[in-house]
């Protein structure tokens, strides 16, 4: 809602003129659960994919997978030991719902700690040298022709989540012909590569040979297609893969006054 107040691109997308008043935020918070249960986002996503297939814009042979951290709506103070039976501060102590907590010298681990407000969130860090946070993992599967997202998945932020999600999304690829799957160094694990080959998917995974032996050898890297897949996968990391074909769907939504119907709970599903 804050973006709608000053971002012209956001206003264009929902059909607001520059001087139109924005909606109250509670309109969306009160309807959030209804929109989730109705799979509105999935309906938009399916319609975009259908449009892309009709225009022959999707590759059915070459794909890329990647993942990222999604910060959970849970504070670090809620991440407490599982055997901690301490009750919340009593009324009148001045602590309220935001008590003072001293974490100095305490080791936090997903094996011994859990968030009291979001038990499914796990402590994770995006890369070495960055701070850990309570999070989930989001995963994308894109095709390499135009860099369009064709599948998404959200999982808990455990160690092998990216590789497990990649295998699940790869299983959903249509057809029985051999395809390629590009990925970054984080996917260079022997079990993952072997499973892809068992699924008749050529693993175009970036080699991670720092103080270790890569699971990707010259059988894969000697081909020109491997180098092309490495160039294509970088579009995901640069956020170029999140392009979608929205114009026709947006025009149809505006024509049918779809966005105002969402506000009034009268929006039909696609």
Largest sheet: 6 strands, mixed
Dominant shape: globular
Structural class based on helices, strands and sheet pairing: alpha/beta
Which value, in Å, is the CA radius of gyration?
A: 23 Å
Unreliable stretches (pLDDT < 50, length at least 5) are: 240-247, 258-270
Strand fraction equals: 15-25%
Q: In DSSP terms, counting alpha (H) and pi (I) runs of 4 or more, how many helices?
A: 10
What string, H for helix and E for strand, traces the elements in order? HHHHEEEEEEHEHEHHHH
- The count of DSSP E runs of length 2 or more, i.e. the number of strands, is 8
Distance between the termini: 24 Å
Helicity, as a percent range: 25-40%
- Would you tell me the overall average pLDDT? 80
Reconstruct the topology from this structure.
Layout: H1 2-6, H2 8-14, H3 25-37, H4 40-54, E1 62-71, E2 79-81, E3 113-115, E4 122-124, E5 133-143, E6 149-156, H5 161-171, E7 179-183, H6 190-198, E8 201-205, H7 218-221, H8 224-237, H9 247-255, H10 258-263
Parallel strand pairs: 1-7, 7-8
Antiparallel strand pairs: 1-5, 2-3, 4-5, 5-6
């Amino acid at each position: 809602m804050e973006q709608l107040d000053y971002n012209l691109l956001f206003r264009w997308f929902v059909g607001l003129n520059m001087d139109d008043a924005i909606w109250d935020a509670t309109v969306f918070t009160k309807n959030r659960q209804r929109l989730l249960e109705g799979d509105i986002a999935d309906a938009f996503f399916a319609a975009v994919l259908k449009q892309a297939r009709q225009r022959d814009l999707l590759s059915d042979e070459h794909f890329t997978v990647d993942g990222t951290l999604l910060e959970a709506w849970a504070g670090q103070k809620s991440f407490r030991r599982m055997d901690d039976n301490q009750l919340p501060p009593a009324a009148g102590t001045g602590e309220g719902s935001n008590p003072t907590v001293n974490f100095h010298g305490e080791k936090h681990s997903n094996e011994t700690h859990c968030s009291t407000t979001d038990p499914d969130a796990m402590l994770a860090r995006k890369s070495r040298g960055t701070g850990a946070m309570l999070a989930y993992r989001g995963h994308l599967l894109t095709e390499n022709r135009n860099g369009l997202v064709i599948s998404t998945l959200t999982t808990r932020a455990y160690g092998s989540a990216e590789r497990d999600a990649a295998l699940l999304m790869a299983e959903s690829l249509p057809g029985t012909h051999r395809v390629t799957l590009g990925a970054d160094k984080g996917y260079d694990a022997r079990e993952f590569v072997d499973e892809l080959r068992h699924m008749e998917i050529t693993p175009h995974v970036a080699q991670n040979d720092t103080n270790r032996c890569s699971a990707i050898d010259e059988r894969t890297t000697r081909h020109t297609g491997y180098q092309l897949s490495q160039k294509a996968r970088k579009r995901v990391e640069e956020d170029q893969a999140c392009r979608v074909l929205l114009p026709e769907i947006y025009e149809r939504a505006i024509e049918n006054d779809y966005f105002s119907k969402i506000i009034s709970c009268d929006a039909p599903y696609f």
